[in-house]
Amino acid sequence: MSTTLRLAVISDIHAASAQHDHSRGSHVVVPAPAGRGNPIDDLRELIKGGALGAVDYLVCPGDITNQADPDAFQWMWARLRETASSIGATEILATCGNHDLDSRYLADARVDDPDAKGAILGLANRFPELSEAEHNEFWAHNFVVLERAKPIAHRVTLLNTCAYHGLVESEIKHGRISGRTIKRIVERLRGRPRVGLNILVCHHHLSPLPSWDTSPDYQYVKKGSELLRELECLDIGPWLIVHGHRHWPDCVYALGGSSSPVLFCAGSFGKAEPQVVNQFHILNVEVDSHASRPSGTVQTWFWSLSAGWQPSVSGDSLRALSFQSGFGFNGSIPKLVDDVISALPTNGSFMEWLDLVTGIPNLRFLLPRDFEILRNALKLKGARIHVEDGQPLQVGLRGIKP
Q1: Which of 103, 224, 255 is nearest to 169 (CA)?
Q2: Distance of alpha carbon 13 from alpha carbon 22, whole angstroms
Q3: Angstrom distance (rounded) from CA 311 to CA 207
Q4: Residue 334 preceded by cis peptide, ω within 30
Q5: Beta bridge partners of 308
Q6: What angle do helix axes 39-48 and 70-86 make, rounded to 10 degrees?
Q7: Rounded to the nearest 5°, which phi and psi values hold at 332?
């Protein structure tokens, strides 16, 4: 029997003070220009309208501000705390991103007394929002493990992949987790009771991702793959890893095995770049201590200046997730294709997608790329999935209801 844990994911906000040149790289400018919409105000309106529902956690995988802007960070951290309260989140699961630390000492002219994380540690409200002991452990050891019992037993690890930023200039180009930190994490987790879900929140991706262009990806976490292998071998329950940094949302399985962690890469909430589709997500995660891998569904919204937040529509030219996607399916897609064909009416009439899912629940848990594989395989067999506004609506062998 599983219980659903709901996570609202807001990543890579890149909030910036209006007087700084780098504010041109953000849609979240403080103070907001008069008469112009922005993602955070529009999110408030979406929440008021009841479109999101209540969540258990607000997850923030870093880059809350842009280019280590301390005033914008403090302002945005307060807005995030308000947002968490407005959607019923019991906690904010947050970690810092490379833009949150003054790695280049941009804001501090006192280069003889550099302090990359000084502005964050000086906040009136702790970041991350933890007890004093947990807060100190996060900053001293670059991670903290949180045991949680409601609504069902689960475990959270917050990881700082920017811990070495500001020490050596080259560190700003990637994330890092040291061998010492990996050893300490394993020591803290080994022998812990098995739970239905382990969540790890970090900023950088733990393994290489496809690049924006033809150049290789060098921004991933050094020793990240080593950490992934250790987590998979711990046998303390399935793992969901939520990260940001790349601004390109996706969901994949880390190591390819049936028990490998699910990696959810969040889109950017507020970065202003031509190639970035601004998105935020709600993850509905099934917590099941007997599962080898987490399963769940993802709802995604995208933001535009003209329309605010709307259900997301992906396409070949967009680096975006559709409004409905999922993760956790462990079976055979060819077998799933046969099941769908068998369920469809043979007289050419259509079938509602929700009715199909009721009979074949695993359809909910397909990765975005696996859904496209299924869709193309069905097309070869004469069946079509009609998708509208990012949501599958109907399936038929010869025709779709007009």
Answers
A1: 103
A2: 13
A3: 29
A4: no
A5: 304
A6: 10
A7: -95, 125
Question: How many residues are present in the chain?
Answer: 402
Give the separation between CA 54 and CA 31, rounded to whole angstroms: 28
Q: CB-based contacts of 197: which residues, under 8 Å, 6+ apart?
A: 5, 154, 155, 237, 238, 240, 285, 287, 288, 294
- For residue range 38-55, what is the model confidence (pLDDT) as tens digits? 999 999 999 999 989 999
Give DSSP secondary structure letters for 85-153: HHTT-SEEEE---TTTS-TT-SS---TTS--TTHHHHT-SS-SS---HHHHHHHHHHSEEEEEE-SSS-
Question: Which single residue is written with the structure tokens 């008469």?
Answer: 35
- C-beta separation of 297 from 325 below 8 A: yes
Closest CA to 40 of 16, 69, 21: 16
| Per-block mean pLDDT, blocks of 10 residues, the chain (402 long) | 89 95 92 86 94 96 94 96 96 96 63 76 92 96 96 95 85 92 97 95 90 74 95 94 94 82 96 92 93 94 94 75 93 94 88 96 94 94 88 80 44
Q: Which residues contact 193 (CB under 8 A, 6 or more apart)?
A: 153, 236
Give the pLDDT of residue 32.
86
Task: Identify the CA nearest to 340 among candidates 360, 365, 361, 366.
Answer: 360
Phi, then psi, of 126 in degrees rounded to 5: -55, 145
* C-beta atoms surrounding 338 within 10 Å: 13
Between CA 368 and CA 299 the distance in angstroms is: 12
Alpha carbons 303 and 26: distance in angstroms, whole number? 13
- pTM exceeds 0.70, yes or no: yes
Residue from 276, 248, 213, 217 nearest 25 by CA = 276
Q: Are 13 and 62 in contact (CB under 8 A)?
A: no
